[in-house]
Amino acid sequence: MNESIGMKFKSVISTGLVLLTCLFVQPGAAQTLKPKVPNQPGIGLNLRNSSAASAADSPDQLQALDYMVAVVDNEPITNMEVNALAVMADPAAARLGKSALLQDALETLINESAQLQVARQLNMQVSADELQQAIDMTARRNNLSLQELQQRVQAQGLGWERYRAQIKRQILLQRVREREITGRIKVQDYEIEKFLSENSSTQNGKNDDIHIAHILLSLSEKANADEVTQAYNKALELLQRVKNGEDFSKLAAQFSNAPDRTNGGQLGMRSPDRYPVLFVDAVQSLSVGAVTGPIRSGAGFHLLKLLERKSPNALPSSILQTRARHILLRPGGQLSQDAARAQLAGYKSKIEAGSVSFEDLAKQFSQDASATQGGDLGWANPGMMVPEFEKAMDSLQPGQIGDPLVSRFGVHLLQVLERREAPLSLRDKQELARNILRERKFDETLKNWEREVRGRAYVEYREPPQ
Q1: How many domains does the structure of the chain reveal?
Q2: What CATH number does residue 53 fall under?
Q3: What is the layout of strands, in order, in the sheet containing 75-78?
Q4: pLDDT, mean of residues 297-317
Q5: What is the span of the domain harbouring residue 46?
Q6: CB-based contacts of 75, cutoff 8 Å, min separation 6
Q7: Which of 240, 341, 369, 371 could disulfide-pair with 3, CB 3.0 to 4.6 Å?
Q8: Which has more confidence, 311 or 181?
Q9: Tell me, what CATH number does 394's domain have?
Q10: Residue 3 CB: number of other CB atoms within 10 A?
C-alpha cells in the first residue's frame, strides 16, 4: 500500500518464541491467510505451579551448584541456566531422565548463543519501548497486572532484571531467525499451481479426513440365521426411515448398540487410516450428508452417514477481513515514544468522552497517507499487517479503541471499525498456498541454518551439567 499501507507486507514465517529460564520455547507458525488459531506463539510466562519444577533442584540448590558448563564464542553457559531451562521441559520429555534432559537443555542454549552472535553481527537491537511492550503483552495475555507479573516472576526464583534480559534475548532470537530463514525459503509458481490443483474443494481425495456417524445393530459371534436376518431387516427399516427424513442422530441415540449412541453415533473427524477400512471403502463415493448400509462387520450391521469430508490442506472458501483506522505519530526530534504514547492516550480519552471524533483527530494529526481518509486503512486480510499491529487489531472488537501501541512505523492509536467474511479471490488463494508451502519448508530450512551457525561457532564443553 502507499505510505499508510506501508504496514501491509508480504507474509513472512516467524518462529514464535517464549522466554527461557522460567519460560519455554515452542515452534511458531506463518502469518498466513489461514483463519487465526488460538494460542498463537509469542512471548509468555510459564504459569505452571512451582511444583512442576520437580525435574530439577530448587533455585537455592542451583545457586550452590552454579559453574560454567560450556563456552560459545567467549560467551559462558552456566549450570544454573541449563537447569532452569530443563525445569520448564514438557512433562513427557522429563521421562527421559534428568541427565538427558539437562543435555538437551545445554544443546538448546549452545545453539541459541551461536544464533545471538549472528544477531550481534547484524547489529540487531531491541529498544526499551519494544521491550516494555513485550512485557506488557505478556502480562495482559496472562490476565495479570505488571506488578502481579513481577511477583510471579520473583516467586519462580528469577530476578526481574534477569527476566527482562531473557525477554530481550528471545526477541533478538526471533528477529534473527525471521531475517535469516525467510530469505532462504523459495516457493516456485509451479509448486503453487500444483498445490491448488491437488487441494481443490471439488475433489474427493483418498487421503481426505472424514467424519462418520453410525448406527450399530450388534450381533454376537454365536448369532443364528434368524437373529442375523432380524438385525439386517431392522437395519433396512432404519435406513428407510432416514431416507424418509428422520434425524439420523436421534435414531442412533434410540437404536444403536454402540457406546457413541449418546453423541448421535458420531465417530469424529479422522484421517482414513484411523477408521476401519470397511467404513472408508463404504463412504468413499458418498456425498456429504448421504447414508449407506447395511454394512456387515464382526460387531454386527452398521448404517453409515458421511457428516463431513475435508482435505488436510483444503483452502477455506472465505476469509475474515478487518477494517480498521489509526492515528500514527512518528517519534523523532522533540517527540519521544513516551510522549507520543501520552499524546495518543489523551486522544483516546477525548474520543471516548465524545468531545472529538477519531476521524477529525486522524485528519489533523496522523502522520501517514491515511490521514486524509480519517485514518481508514480499508479492508485487510490476515497476515497483511505487521505482526505487532495485527495482534493488537485482532484483540479488539468492532468499535473498540485500543491502547497506544508501538510498531516499526511509530506509535498508533487503533480502532477496529468492522469485520466481514469475504470470498477468497484467486490471488488470495495463491498467496495462501504460497504461505502454506513456506511453512512446510520452514522447519527443514531452520535446521539447516542452525547447523551452519553451530558449525561456525567455537564451542568448548567444560563440566557436564548436573
Answers
A1: 3
A2: 1.10.4030.10
A3: 75-78, 68-72, 459-461
A4: 85
A5: 4-188+444-461
A6: 113, 116, 117
A7: 369
A8: 181
A9: 3.10.50.40
A10: 13
